[in-house]
């Protein structure tokens, strides 16, 4: 059986700690990038939702105008 002296054990422990720290930093960087992507997507979703609501309101407005116009056309046709 190989005996590991204190200096070798300390070096192994430091290597594991450095690897763990580097892995943690990589994951934190990835998480930050994904958070930015999520924030950008959320912003785009909000803009798109607002646009859709505006379009829906416009279509409803035009529908009401067409109903009035249709009613007027029927009245004019009926009296002609």
Question: How would you describe this structure in keywords?
Answer:
80 residues, mainly alpha, 92% helix
Strand content: under 5%
Classify the secondary structure makeup into a structural class. Answer: mainly alpha
Mean of pLDDT: 88
* H and E order: H
Walk me through the structure.
The longest helix is centred in the middle third of the chain and has 74 residues. The chain is an all-alpha fold. The mean pLDDT is 88. It is built from 1 helix and no strands. The protein has one domain.
Summarize the structure.
With 80 residues, the protein is mostly helical. 92% of the residues lie in helices and 0% in strands. It has one helix spanning 6-79.
Give the SSE layout:
Elements: H1 6-79
